[in-house]
Design brief:
Number of domains: 1
CATH class: Alpha Beta
CATH topology: Undecaprenyl pyrophosphate synthetase
Structural class: alpha/beta
CATH superfamily: Decaprenyl diphosphate synthase-like
Distance between the termini: 35 Å
Largest sheet: 6 strands, parallel
CATH architecture: 3-Layer(aba) Sandwich
Shape: globular
């Protein structure tokens, strides 16, 4: 039964964990789980938009993930090659724009081109944004921002740091969801998450369906956010 949710977050970020374990339980290769996770991500984006959420950030590939076996990485890249354009067009049809945070220059050139085209061709008047964190790490992002500030030769305040991040024109996440049972942020949006609400679930990401997403939003809706105040 659909839950009555009064307080909808503006920005939800998701650590999509558990694809590999989901595949292993089914005696399938990890790529099978990543494919299922990609389908779950599209369904989640549709659900988020239908609920009135404006920004959905998904942790698709971390800087640490690039150290995984070459075979698994190539499988991930092949999924991008096979499904990225279609999935992005499906998002366009839903009125969504695609954004990317992270350093995609470490990815294969053809994958970079696909991603760049997906961003460039996004609807200009979109009211919903899917933000893909690709080769993203919060420490690398902060290091990049500090070096940019040093190059200016100026003293910086907190707001200046925010303006130098990949997310400079995106509001901080109200809610961060992590699937798969782990209880950590894993180098994800560390600066932006200063006052984010956190939601952890044991559900592996391919099984994180609309009802599970609704449950997470309902949990957020019932919380009292004080931002350090009384």
């Amino acid at each position: 039964m659909k839950q009555d949710i009064a307080n909808i977050p503006r920005h939800v970020a998701v650590i999509m964990d558990g694809n590999g374990r989901w595949a292993k339980k089914r005696l399938m290769p990890r790529t099978f789980g990543h494919n299922a996770g990609m389908n779950a991500m599209i369904a989640m984006a549709r659900k988020a938009k239908s609920m009135g959420i404006r920004y959905l950030t998904v942790y698709a590939l971390s800087t640490e993930n690039l150290s995984r076996p070459k075979e698994e990485l190539e499988g991930l890249y092949n999924l991008f090659r096979k499904y990225f354009t279609k999935n992005v067009k499906d998002l366009y049809a839903e009125g969504a724009a695609v954004r990317v945070i992270g350093d995609i220059t470490a990815l294969p050139q053809d994958v970079q081109t696909l991603i760049e085209e997906g961003v460039k061709n996004s609807p200009a008047d979109a009211q919903f944004f899917v933000i893909l964190a690709l080769n993203y790490g919060a420490r690398a992002e902060l290091t990049r921002a500090v070096n940019a500030a040093i190059s200016r030769g100026e003293r910086v305040e907190e707001g200046d740091i925010s303006s130098l991040l990949y997310t400079k024109d995106i509001p901080d996440p109200d809610l961060i969801i992590r699937t798969g049972g782990e209880l950590r942020l894993s180098n994800f949006l560390l600066w932006q998450a200063a006052y984010s609400e956190l939601y952890f679930t044991d559900v592996l990401f391919p099984d994180f369906d609309e009802k599970q997403f609704e449950k997470a939003i309902a949990s957020y809706s019932g919380r009292n956010r004080r931002f350090g105040k009384i």
